[in-house]
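Quick check before the chapter quiz. The format below is the same one you will see on the exam, so make sure you can read both the input and the output lines.
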Amino acid sequence: MKIVVTVKRVIDYNVKVRVKSDNTGVDLANTKMSINPFCEIAVEEAVRLKEKGTATEVVVVSIGDKACQEQIRTALALGADRGIHIETAANLDSLQVAKLLQKVVEEEQPNLVVMGKQAIDSDNNQTGQMLGALTGMPQGTFASELVIDGDKAKVTREIDGGLQTVELNLPAIVTTDLRLNEPRYASLPNIMKAKRKPLAVKAADDFGVNLTSNVEVLSVSEPAKRDGGVIVDSVAALVAKLKDEAKVIS
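Here is the expected output.
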């Protein structure tokens, strides 16, 4: 079994995001970048399947400028076998990313594609679904458990009302939720080994995909600042504030 895993380079989740002074986007200067946390869970799940003997090869794919190779090397240090970097300086939207990944799937012919359910920068939560539509592969989204049984995958999904289990025929696409697993830390020996693992660099322009974005960012701003809380000395005072000031009860 071959597994393709997608990873995205994003601002580290521990870093406070800064908005540019002209409100055109997020300031990335001197900002720590890392693998999108959901993508890291996807890498961990693929590596675990390989360690169980279910999978034979884990291929990591990332799309972006040359800096993305840092995140690919991190995934290789976590246990992936080889990487593919689709190099482009363009700011791509979800559909363009899905179309590029479709070309990778056609070339690699994986039995399973594992992706993070969303990226913490754009929070779109749609690339996996779009890839499923483009490739015609069945998909299991928001996976909190993944079991491979022969040529089928059982995916337990987190939904509003609880948990739902679906059975997919392989090849299939699975997008990961937070509770699927806890990613490991890369050891120093594995970090050194990752430097020698193969990493193919391909130009996005060579895939025949229109890279002109259909999405225009009008403005980026910080969330509205919240006022500090107040301490009340009685339940009656709390109820009065909720009724007269907050207007949340009548």
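If your answer matched, good. The chain has one domain: 2-225.
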